[in-house]
Amino acid sequence: MRRIDPDENENALIGAIRGGDRRSFSQIVLKYREPVIRICRGYVGSFEDAEDLAQEIFVELYRSAGSFRGDSSVATWIYRIAINKSLNFVRDNRKKFSVFRSADSAGERVLYNSTGDNESDRDIMNSEHAKAIHLALDKLPANQKTAFILNKYEELSYKEISAIMKISHSSVESLIFRAKQNLQKSLLDYYQKNIDGTAR
Amino acid sequence: MKCNDTHRLIIQYLNGDLDRQSIVEIENHLRDCPECDGYVSFTRAAFAVVDSEKRVEPDSSFLDHVFDRLESPVTIRSYRNKMLSLAAAAAVIVFATFAGMSLARFSSSAYFTSVDTSIKSDILFANEMTIEPFENFFISGEAE
Question: Which of B8, B54, B55, B81 is the best substitution to test chain A (most A C-beta atoms within 10 A)?
Answer without folding.
Answer: B54
